[in-house]
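Exercise: predict the fold of this chain.
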Amino acid sequence: MKKNIYVYFALLSFLVSVSIISSCAFTKDQPTDVELLSSIENTFVSVAKRSTPAIVGVISFREVEDGEFHRQEGSGFIFRKDGHILTNEHVIRDAKTVRVRLLDESEFDAKMVGVDRNTDIAVLKIDAKEDLPILPLANSEEVQVGQFAIAIGNPFQLNYTVTIGTVSGKGRSFLRDIGIIRYQDFIQTDAWINTGNSGGPLLNIHGEVIGVNSLIRRADNTPATGAVRAGAGFAISSNLVEKIGTQLIANGRIIRGFLGIDMRKVPQGIRIRSVLKNMPAHLAGLQRGDIIVKYNGKPVKNTDEFKMWIADSTIGENSKITILRNGHERMFNVTIAEMPAFQAGRPIETDSVAWRRLGLSVRKLEKGDFERYTYLTDEDRGVIVDMVEENSPIPRGTLIIAVNGQKINTVQEFEALLQKQQQELELLILDVKSSHGTEKITMQLKP
């Protein structure tokens, strides 16, 4: 027994000694406070050095009175080696010309590849002689509240200003749908951003873009009146940016599905506040006060998600919407239409012959239409009806193939035919194609 006790104490003494020695060694190997801060500091410095070559200044020129031009500056970044650049739509809105300035101060004329006012995203393209440095896009779903955030941009023309903060929040959406429909997924940050930062990147410590800096919200949520805007900063999430940017490069613009309702979140789902006349919801029989609980079998939980589902729906697609009306569930078949130009933030051409004489506005058939419209094939040619007056026999989204038997391929050809024949004819026979199939429609020309 004594022997066992001696062995036990000997073993215990050995373990305690080893523990003390290991603890001393571990403490000795621990970095000092200065070394730890230096390591963090070096990370920020490294991100700034690696990232700035891919960050650009964006200078846009908008025509104002008497042929004068208003100059506006913002930021952007290169995300494809061939010169494709991401920025904010509001930085280049209504611009006649856009120039891009690189880190070495060289400047390029930029082509506007596509803009999307609904998300405030735009894509520019410059022609450089060699591959350009890029910033990779992170998966914004993996961004965590509390992680470091690094903003780089050109506030107040102070080029390549670097500010550091944290991710303060995710999934923010607070802008109202006034006219245009907004699609929002903002990352909130306390990294200092200001006038001129718009379009620049919000980065993680790996130098990956987690968002595109877009706006600042003051405490009272009112527009800024002074030079400096104190408030929370918001960046468009990188996943939304990548989705929209890729579509803009492929198609030049975003084609979205449209339902035609005003709505708000309620505990059961989404309550319809109003229904636009002759739009998909109205034509399907949905009413004010209905509560949408399912879309194609999926439970409807919030307005942002539901708007995204509608936007991504194929034009002409037959979707099933389940609603609560007077406490009872009912299901409706709704044919999704394309979002009208006004809600998409696009100008409506009302000076054309087509609008004056037929009460409709048309646009060219684009590559993206073949992917988004169920009733189009790769062989189809013509012009798409973008907007119509009330009670028009032609619905929006219709493809006009021919006028009085003469085929058309462009808006210019369509306008020229109307201009030529408007003095000679009072009626036009249009060959059209829509979700109802191919048919001939006779239209009365207005005087």
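Check your answer against the key: The mean pLDDT is 86.
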